[in-house]
Design goal:
The protein is built from eleven helices and four strands. It is an alpha+beta fold. The relative contact order is 0.18.
């Protein structure tokens, strides 16, 4: 959802529900390196608001009442041994009476040896993505619109937010109430299902059941393909109403 109503604030409790959903997402070793700073445009310091920019479709940042700055804190990896112990104590890892001893003698030494590698970009970002996805679903469930945007100003943003050097900015998420119709112009173009997914080996397309496709359409989980007939008129209305430049992108 790219077009948000700038005049309508978002209730903090709705943002909290998004963060709660992100917090519960699965993460390797229960490390939970995903963190966030929530920037409310009407209360945040000017230098923070000014540092939140996107190189493309920047009007989304300008209009959004809330921008969530998602980042990974690599220092969280330093606590991995304690997080593993928590999993064992909670009954979520290992079996038998000797599981605590096995953790200390077998698993923890392995994780300790690879600790520097685990701070590098890779698995942390993958699991952080799961948390951001769950937050996005929670936003949709509450009637909010969101869009994920990259930033070319990550280092300045990190400094303005006061984040330590151990943090890497992942993505900006605009949040607000939709200014456009819920269909948002229809389903964006996607690669063919059979090109993306395989069964039992590369080159064997996963069979796509027409019955499942129809079921998803009935449940409104699959939309009619974009553009819907009224989309150009809607975009022109939004451009004028929201004061977006005529080029429509920057």
């Amino acid at each position: 959802m790219r077009f948000l109503a700038p005049h309508r604030p978002v209730e903090p409790e709705k943002i909290q529900r998004m963060l709660e959903a992100a917090r519960l997402a699965s993460h390797w070793g229960n490390v939970q390196s995903l963190r966030a700073v929530v920037v409310f445009r009407d209360t945040a310091p000017k230098e923070v608001v000014d540092s939140i920019v996107a190189p493309i479709v920047g009007y989304q940042i300008r209009l959004a009442p809330v921008v969530i700055v998602w980042y990974v804190d690599t220092d969280a990896v330093d606590e991995q041994n304690d997080r593993l112990r928590e999993l064992v104590n909670a009954g979520a890892m290992g079996v038998g009476e000797g599981k605590a001893e096995a953790l200390e003698k077998q698993i923890i030494p392995i994780f300790t040896n690879i600790l520097p590698r685990m701070k590098q970009p890779g698995l942390n970002e993958l699991d952080c993505g799961q948390g951001i996805a769950q937050a996005t679903l929670m936003a949709f469930e509450q009637g909010l619109g969101t869009c994920l945007l990259g930033t070319g100003n990550g280092e300045k943003l990190r400094q303005n937010l006061g984040l330590p050097e151990s943090c890497r900015i992942l993505v900006l998420q605009t949040v607000g109430y939709p200014a456009e119709s819920p269909e948002a112009g229809g389903q964006r173009p996607r690669q063919p299902f059979e090109k993306l997914f395989h069964m039992n080996g590369f080159g064997n397309p996963f069979p796509r059941s027409p019955e499942v496709v129809e079921e998803l359409k009935r449940d409104k989980l699959l939309q009619a393909p974009a553009p819907l007939p009224y989309r150009e008129s809607e975009l022109e209305y939004l451009r004028v109403a929201l004061g977006i430049k005529d080029n429509g992108l920057l």
